[in-house]
Design a protein that fits this description.
About 40% of the residues lie in helices and about 25% in strands. By secondary structure, it is an alpha/beta fold. The chain folds into two domains: about 260 residues, Aldehyde Dehydrogenase, Chain A, domain 1, CATH 3.40.605.10; about 190 residues, Aldehyde Dehydrogenase, Chain A, domain 2, CATH 3.40.309. A seven-stranded mixed β-sheet has the order 14-15-16-13-12-18-19, sandwiched between helices. Strands 9-8-7-10-11-21 form a six-stranded mixed β-sheet, with helices on both faces. Helix 9 crosses helix 10. The relative contact order is 0.14. The structure holds nicotinamide-adenine-dinucleotide.
Length: about 475
C-alpha cells in the first residue's frame, strides 16, 4: 500500500492540498511515514463558505434522498474497508483485526443512522387548534474528533448531522488525520459539493474553527480540558455544543461472580485499544472475597497478551497512539513507582522507537493516588478492594467525571439496582464497552454536554420548531 500518497483535504467537493504539511507518525515505530495537509486560516474560510453555500439546497433535499446517500457512503466505505483498515493500523497503532472491526462497524453505523427519522409531535389537533412540533436542521456544523477511534468518531458525527440536513466541516486529530481524509475522498463522488468538507492541520486549527462565526453548532469529542476551551469559544456567538469528553469509569465486581467467567471480559473492558477508550474501565473495585482470585487471573491474561506492532500477526495490543500521550502515561507510572505502589506488569514490550507501555495492574493503591484519580488513557488499571456495597457506590461516584461504568454480579436485579445509583450516562451490567446507534450515549458531570447516538443524538443536530394554528380564525 502506498502510504506516500499525497493526502488531500476535501473542500467544496474538490481535492485541496494544504498550504503546509504536518507529519504523521507510525506509533509502533516512532517514525514519520506520511504527511497530511496543514489547513491555513484562508482555507478554513473556504471550507466554511462552501458548507454555507451548500446548506440551503441540502436542507431542502428530501430526507429520503439524504438517507440514500448515507447508505451509498456506507457501501463505499465497506468497499474500501481493507485499505482503510491498513491505513488505520499504521496511523493509529491498533492491531489489524480490530482496525477492520472499527471500519466495518462505522460503515454499518452509517446505515443504521440512515434509517432514523426525526419525530413530529402533535400536541393538539382539535376544531380550534392545530399544534405541532417538528425538528429543523441547525446550519453548518463544526466537527472535531480525537485520535483514539478516528473512523467511528468521525462517522457518528457525519451521519446524523447530514441526515438532519446540516452541512459540515470536520477536522480529525493531527495525530490520526489520514483515514478521515481518505473518507472525504471516498464520499466526494456521492455527496453534493460543500456538504461535507474534511480539513486537517496542527494545533491552531481547532481553536480557529470553534471561534469561526460561520458555524452554527460544534460537535466535539476529546478531553474535558479541551472541551472547556471549546465551550469558551462557542459562548462568544452562542453556538450550540455537544461535548463528548473524558471519563474515569468505575467497574464494581460483587463477591458472587464466577471469576474465570468474567475475567477476560473485564480485561477487555480495561485494556482494549491499549486502554485508550473514553469508556474503558479505569478504576476496578473488587469485593475482598474475590479480589485475589480476580487479580491473579487478570495477571495471567496479561502474561498471555502480546503487545507490539499492530500490523504483525498475533499482536493483541498496539502502542500508545502518540508521543504526547505516551509521556503522560509514563509520568503516571513514574508517580506510582515514586509513591511505592505495587505494580504488576505481565506483558513484555518490544524494543525500538515505538510508544509501548506494558499492561500494568496497580494492586490496591490508596484512593487518593493519581492513578486512581486521573484518567490514565493508557494501560494502567488500579484494582481497589471493597467490603461494603454502600461504601463502594460512594467511592465510584466520587469523581468529577460521569461517563460510564459497569457492575458485575450473578444477581442481575441487585446489579441493576446498583447501576441505577451510578452517576454516569451509561452503565453496563455484566458486559462493557457496548454502544448502539439506537441508544443515546453521553456524559454526566464533566464528562460532557448533550448526547450522541439514538434519536436524541440526531436531535442534537436539529432545533424544535413549534407551529400553532388557530383554526377558528
Ligand atoms: P484532545 O482534547 O486533546 O483533542 C481532541 C480534538 O480536539 C483533536 O482533534 C484536537 O486537535 C482538537 N483540539 C485540541 N485543542 C483544541 C482547542 N483548543 N480547540 C478546539 N479543538 C482542539 O483529546 P484527545 O487526546 O485527542 O482524545 C482523548 C480524550 O478524548 C480523552 O479524554 C477521552 O476520554 C476523550 N474521548 C471522549 C469520548 C466520548 O465519547 N466521551 C470518546 C473518545 C475520546
Amino acid at each position: 500500500m502506498d502510504f506516500n500518497a499525497a493526502y488531500v483535504m476535501t473542500i467544496n467537493g474538490e481535492p485541496v492540498a494544504g498550504e503546509g504539511t504536518i507529519d504523521v507518525v507510525n506509533p509502533a515505530t516512532g517514525a514519520v511515514f506520511a504527511t497530511a495537509p496543514d489547513c491555513s486560516k484562508a482555507q478554513l474560510d473556504d471550507a466554511v463558505a462552501a458548507a454555507r453555500t451548500a446548506y440551503p439546497a441540502w436542507r431542502d433535499t428530501p430526507i429520503e434522498e439524504r438517507a440514500d446517500m448515507l447508505v451509498k457512503m456506507s457501501d463505499a466505505m465497506a468497499a474500501h474497508a481493507d485499505e482503510l483498515a491498513r491505513l488505520f493500523t499504521t496511523e493509529q497503532g491498533r492491531p489489524l483485526d480490530a482496525a477492520r472491526m472499527e471500519v466495518g462497524g462505522a460503515a454499518q453505523w452509517l446505515k443504521a443512522i440512515a434509517s432514523m427519522r426525526p419525530p413530529v409531535n402533535v400536541a393538539e389537533d382539535s376544531d380550534t387548534q392545530y399544534v405541532e412540533t417538528r425538528y429543523v436542521p441547525l446550519g453548518v456544523v463544526c466537527a472535531i474528533s480525537p485520535w483514539n477511534f478516528p473512523v467511528t468518531l468521525a462517522v457518528v458525527k457525519i451521519a446524523p448531522a447530514l441526515l438532519a440536513g446540516n452541512t459540515m466541516v470536520l477536522k480529525p486529530s493531527p495525530f490520526t488525520p489520514l483515514c478521515t481524509l481518505r473518507m472525504g475522498e471516498i464520499f466526494r463522488d456521492i455527496l453534493p459539493p460543500g456538504v461535507l468538507n474534511i480539513i486537517s492541520g496542527g494545533d491552531d486549527l481547532g481553536p480557529w474553527m470553534t471561534a469561526h462565526p460561520g458555524f452554527d453548532k460544534i460537535s466535539f469529542t476529546g478531553s474535558t480540558a479541551t472541551g472547556k476551551r471549546v465551550m469558551e469559544n462557542a459562548a462568544k456567538d452562542l453556538k450550540k455544543v455537544t461535548l463528548e469528553l473524558g471519563g474515569n469509569d468505575a467497574a464494581i465486581v460483587l463477591p458472587d461472580v464466577d471469576v474465570d467467567a468474567v475475567a477476560q471480559q473485564i480485561f477487555f473492558g480495561a485494556f482494549f485499544n491499549t486502554a485508550q477508550i473514553c469508556v474503558a474501565t479505569k478504576r476496578l473495585y473488587v469485593h475482598e472475597d474475590v479480589y485475589d482470585a480476580l487479580r491473579d487471573k487478570l495477571l495471567e491474561i496479561s502474561n498471555a497478551t502480546k503487545v507490539g506492532d499492530g500490523s504483525q500477526q498475533g499482536v493483541n495490543l498496539g502502542p500508545i497512539q502518540n508521543k504526547r500521550q505516551y509521556e503522560r502515561v509514563m509520568d503516571l507510572l513514574d508517580d506510582a513507582k515514586t509513591n511505592g505502589l505495587t505494580l504488576l506488569q505481565g506483558s513484555e514490550i518490544p524494543d525500538g522507537g515505538g510508544y509501548f507501555v506494558p499492561v500494568t495492574i496497580v494492586d490496591n493503591p490508596p484512593e487518593a493516588s493519581r492513578v486512581v484519580q486521573e484518567e490514565a488513557f493508557g494501560p494502567i488499571l488500579p484494582m481497589l478492594k471493597f467490603t461494603d456495597v454502600e461504601d463502594v457506590i460512594e467511592r465510584a461516584n466520587d469523581s468529577e467525571y460521569g461517563l460510564a461504568g459497569a457492575v458485575w454480579s450473578k444477581d442481575t436485579d441487585k446489579a441493576i439496582e446498583i447501576a441505577r445509583r451510578m452517576e454516569t450516562g451509561t452503565i453496563w451490567v455484566n458486559q462493557n464497552l457496548r454502544v448502539r446507534p439506537d441508544t443515546p450515549f453521553g456524559g454526566h458531570k464533566q464528562s460532557g454536554i448533550g448526547v450522541e447516538y439514538g434519536i436524541e443524538g440526531l436531535l442534537e443536530f436539529m432545533a424544535p420548531q413549534s407551529i400553532m394554528v388557530a383554526k377558528s380564525a
